[in-house]
Amino acid sequence: MSDSVAADPDEHLTDGWEPDAPETDTVVRQCVLAHADWATIAAEAKGRPWRRTDRWAGAYAGDRGAFTNMVILLRPPRGEDDLAEVLGEVADLVPAPAPYLLLSPFPTPDLTSHGLARVGHPPLMLRPAGPGPAQDADVREVTDADTLAVAERLLVEAYPMPEAEPLTAGDVLSPALLGGPMRFWLGYLDDEPVAVSAAVCTRGLSLVTYVAALPAARGRGVGGGVTWAATLADPEGPAILVASDDGRPVYERLGYLALERWTAWLRPGA
């Protein structure tokens, strides 16, 4: 007769998403917390409202732009009522008709009844620290407000969104971000800026974001060059990003590995 072990109903079995769980409990947890930092760092630099709870983090960084206001879930939803409470709190922070993007690293029910539309299941990718392919693109780090304004204009041009009102200067980036945990790069062809990238150095990771290239510059190496610069923002640590399926091959050539897919929901603006 074999012994059996019965679970103690009063014993807490960690799932790794408790507020006091170590941030390095899993690589995915580090990635989630890094994205939460990105959302709040950018809003705080602009003097905009942001909020962080045990369940979610997000910011009300602007009134326009589908990706201006980011929200991320910090632990798995514990039922539909729990998720509905979270969405109510988000709506209090980001009032309609301003849009927001909700990133969920966890399975969620259908959220269309809450006014959100599912826009994809983007892959979370990681590149371990270490040397990589040589890059010969002309890439320069952004260090002043005037050049940051150029980066912002390029970002808006490279990712045109069907907004009721076009994005304007300061809607995405703020000079207050310079000198902090976010860094920015521009890629040039014939001395003209054609590509942009950024990295948030936090949680021992370089979170690569805002990667964009003008259509005429695509396939000419400059997009990979700015991505590589952001990847090496902290050369001692890994780099992470949430990719599009179109961009995934570019990142794989730089040594990125797909860890899992997240879910992206959008509450569209007016």
Automatic annotation (TrEMBL):
Gene3D superfamilies: 3.40.630.30. SUPFAM superfamilies: Acyl-CoA N-acyltransferases (Nat). Coiled coil: none annotated. Residues 1-23 are annotated as: Disordered. InterPro entries: Acyl_CoA_acyltransferase, GNAT_dom. Residues 137-270 form the N-acetyltransferase domain. It comes from the Bacteria. This is N-acetyltransferase domain-containing protein. It comes from Nocardioides taihuensis.
